[in-house]
Amino acid sequence: MFIHFKIPGGTVVRLSVYSRYLNGLKRNGVHTISSSEIAKGVGVSSAQVRKDIALFGEFGTRGVGYNLEDLDKEILAILGLDSTWNVALVGMGHLGCALASYKSFKQRNFNLTCTFDNDPQKIGKKINDIEILSVERLEEIVTQKQIRIGVVTVPSEVAQEMTNLLIRAGVQAILNFAPTRLDVPPEIVLRNVDLAVNLELFSFNIK
Amino acid sequence: MFIHFKIPGGTVVRLSVYSRYLNGLKRNGVHTISSSEIAKGVGVSSAQVRKDIALFGEFGTRGVGYNLEDLDKEILAILGLDSTWNVALVGMGHLGCALASYKSFKQRNFNLTCTFDNDPQKIGKKINDIEILSVERLEEIVTQKQIRIGVVTVPSEVAQEMTNLLIRAGVQAILNFAPTRLDVPPEIVLRNVDLAVNLELFSFNIK
DNA sequence: TAGATTGTTAATCGATTAACAATC
DNA sequence: TAGATTGTTAATCGATTAACAATC
After folding, report:
1. Which of these, A20, A73, A167, B203, is most buried using a 10 Å CB contact count?
2. Strands of the sheet with A65-67, listed across from one edge
C-alpha cells in the first residue's frame, strides 16, 4: 500500500482503537458492521469513522456496511500489524518487567525478542521466558537480530547512552519512558511516554 | 484564578512541558527568559509559547521577556501544582511498583498516599515507604483521606470493579493503565494510558 | 532614540462535522 | 422501489503561525 498524502496523526491512533474494538467483536459471529456501530463502540462520530477508513480505500458497501473480518484485516494491514515486529527492551527495572509481561504486545504481533540490563544480579534471569542479557551485548545482538524497535526504560542518566547504542545497532523507532529529552537523528522515530504529564492534566482539570 | 473560556488541551500539555523546562533551568542564576528561548528549549514556535502563556494573563514585560522565577510560579499555579495532590494506586504488580517508585511524582507535588492490592502475599509489605493495603479497605481509607486522584494498574478483568470502588470513595480523576474501556460518570475525569498504541504508531510509521 | 520582545489580531492551516449523492 | 449506509464534498470549527502595534 502506498500512501502519498499526509495522514493525520489522530487517524492512526483511532484506527488502532477501531482495530482493537473489531478484534473484541469477532467471536460473536457478527459479519457486518456499520460506521455508526463502530462509532458508538469507541466513542467518536460515525462520519469520523468513515473518513478515517476511507482515507485508505473503499472497504465498505454502500447501503450495507463493512464486512467485519475484511475490515479487521484491512486495518491491521494499514497499521502494519499483519507481520511480526521484533522489539528490544533496555532496562529491566519494575517498568521494564511490567512491559515484558504485558500480554497485549504479543497479541498485536509485537515480539519482545530480547531484554537488557547492566545489573549482574539480573543478567541471566528470565522474565516471561525472555532472558535478560548484559547491555555489553546490546549492539551485537540487536544488529544481528535486525530489531527495528527499541524501548528505553532505564534511569534518565543513562537513557541517552542506551539510545545511542540502539541507534548504532540499527533500530528505527524508540519508545522512551525515561523522563528526559533524547537527542536522535531526524530519521529515527521517537515517542516519549511521560507519566507525569497525565497527572498534571488532572490537577489542571480538577483544581 | 477563574478561566471562563475554553483552554485547548494542547496548551495544558505544553504548559506542563514548559514548566519542567523552566524547573531545569533555575539553578543557573538566569533571571530573564524570552519566549524564543523557551521555544528553542522545548521544540515549539515562540508564537506558540507566547500564546499559551498569554491565555492566562500578562506575565511578561514587552521588550524584556519573562522573569524566570515568576513565570515558573505562575505556570505551576495554572497547572494546580502549587499545592499537594494525594493519589491512591490500586494494583501493585510490576507496573504499580514502577509507578510507586517514580520520583517525578513527588517532585511535582503528587503524593502517593496509599496503595492497594488483593494478594495476601503483598499486603503489609512496603514499597518506597508506602504500605500495601488490602483492597477491602480501599473505600474506607480513600474516603477518609479525601483522595481525589486514583491510578488503576490492575488486570483488565477487575479494572471496572476497582474504578467503581474509587469513585464511591470520592475520587474525581482516574488514570487507567488497564487495556480496557472503563465506564465512569460524566463528572469523573478519566485518562487512559495505552502502552500498545505507541508501538502501533511505530509499526504504521516505519512499515 | 534604537533595539528588543511581549501580547494580540488577522491569516493560514488542518481536522472534524454535516450533508448528501451514489449505490447496495 | 424503499430503506439503509457508504464515500465524498462542502461547511464549520479550532488551533497554529505570521505579523505588528504596544511598550519596555
Report:
1. B203
2. A32-33, A65-67, A60-61
Query: What confidence category does residue B30 fall into, taking pLDDT thresholds of 50, 70 and 90?
Result: confident
Per-residue confidence band for B4, with pLDDT thresholds at 50, 70 and 90: low
Neighbouring residues of A188: CB distance < 8 A, sequence distance ≥ 6: A167, A171, A172, A173, A174
Structure confidence at residue A28 (pLDDT): 67
Q: Taking the complete model, does pTM exceed 0.85, yes or no?
A: yes
B91 CB contact with strand C at below 7 Å = no
The residue type found at A167 is I
Identify all chain A residues contacting B201, using CB atoms and an 8 Å cutoff.
9, 12-13, 16, 191
Contacts of B133 (CB under 8 A, 6+ apart): B114, B115, B116, B117, B123, B141
User: Where on the phi/psi map is residue A65: left (φ > 0), alpha (ψ -120 to 50), or beta?
Assistant: left
What does the DSSP 8-state code read for residue A181?
Answer: P
The C-alpha cell that represents B207 in the structure block: 512499515
pLDDT band for position A24 (cuts 50, 70, 90) = confident
Q: Which nucleotide is nearest to B63 (CA to C1')?
A: C5
Q: Does A94 reach chain B within 8 Å, measured CB to CB? A: yes
Q: For strands B126-127 and B110-117, give the pairing.
A: unpaired
CA nearest neighbour of B91 among B150, B36, B146, B170: B150
Average pLDDT over residues A91-117: 93
Backbone angles phi, psi at B177, to 5 degrees: -100, -10
Could you report the per-residue pLDDT of B88-102, keeping only the tens digit for each? 999 999 999 999 998
